[in-house]
Design goal:
alpha+beta; L-fuculose-1-phosphate Aldolase; 8-stranded mixed sheet; 7 helices; 8 strands; 17% strand; globular
């Protein structure tokens, strides 16, 4: 696996999200970080048909270096890159089962997505859900920014999913694991049993992870 994704990789993985029915119409946005610059989908880009010209180059402070107006969700992406130097790729999408599952949860929570497979917990750990905020709003980006130092994956109620990690391949894998577990939750009417707390603790110990006690 390559250490650094290229713009061509970003095009390929962005199209793959559409091909795998993880995004629809003009929803979603993707980005990578190379050095201190970020390439992110422009406003209005259709992920299933993107080319290299559909990506805008930004500084970490959000200034446009080259390209068209960036996605309105660019502050969400930048908050991950600034909070976590190891993050090199961010995927934000609107997957069907993840959104459907989020509508069943009455309140924001720290460990929202049930780990019906240990693969999900090994890859993503806890996946918190934040409350609903209007798309592109300052309130949404502030809510995400509070969590980026602690989590790589965040579910947004009635909106979608954002995953950040060190490469696009891993980010896509986490997206698919979360979407699968949300699908299982719906298929089982939330009556399935996820992996145990003891197994989660052991996985966290092996990976040297810890989680905050609240969303505040």
């Amino acid at each position: 696996m390559k250490d650094i994704d290229t713009i061509k990789d970003l095009v390929d993985y962005t199209r793959l999200l559409y091909d795998r029915h993880l995004v629809h119409a003009e929803g979603g946005n993707t980005s990578i970080r190379i050095g201190n610059d970020v390439w992110i989908t422009r406003t209005g880009a259709v992920l299933g048909r993107v080319t290299e010209s559909d990506f805008t180059r930004l500084s970490l402070s959000g200034d446009v270096i080259a390209g068209e107006k960036p996605s309105k969700e660019f502050p969400m992406h930048l908050s991950f890159y600034k909070a976590r130097p190891d993050v090199k790729a961010v995927i934000h999408i609107h997957p069907t089962y993840s959104i459907a599952y989020s509508t069943l949860l009455a309140e924001p929570c720290l460990d929202a997505v049930p780990a019906y497979s240990s693969a999900l917990y090994r890859r993503a750990g806890q996946v918190p859900m934040i409350a609903y905020y209007p798309v592109g709003s300052k309130e949404l980006h502030q809510a995400i920014e509070k969590l980026t130092p602690y989590f790589y994956s965040i579910l947004m109620r009635q909106h979608g999913l954002t995953v950040a990690t060190n490469n696009l391949s891993d980010a896509l894998g986490i997206v698919e694991e979360i979407e699968q577990c949300c699908h299982i939750a719906l298929l089982t009417n939330q009556k399935g049993y996820p992996i145990t707390s003891e197994e989660k603790i052991e996985i966290d110990k092996l990976q040297g992870r810890s989680w905050p006690k609240s969303l505040n």
